[in-house]
Amino acid sequence: MEAEKLPGGGVSEPCLRAPGGRAAGEEEASRPPEPALIEPVRLPHEAEVPARVLLVCTAPDVKLVGALVDPGEGSRRLWLSELVRGRWQGRELLVAGPLLGGPQAAMVLEKLIALGARAVMMVGWCGSLIPTLPAGSLVVPPLAHPGDGTSPHYLAPGALPQADPGLMSRLGRPLPGLREADMPWQTGPVWSTDAVYRETPSLLAKARAAGAVAVDMELAALLAVAAFRGVAAAGVLVVSDELSGGTWRNASRSPEVRRAREVAARLALEALTAWEGD
Question: pTM of the full predicted structure?
Answer without folding.
Answer: 0.89
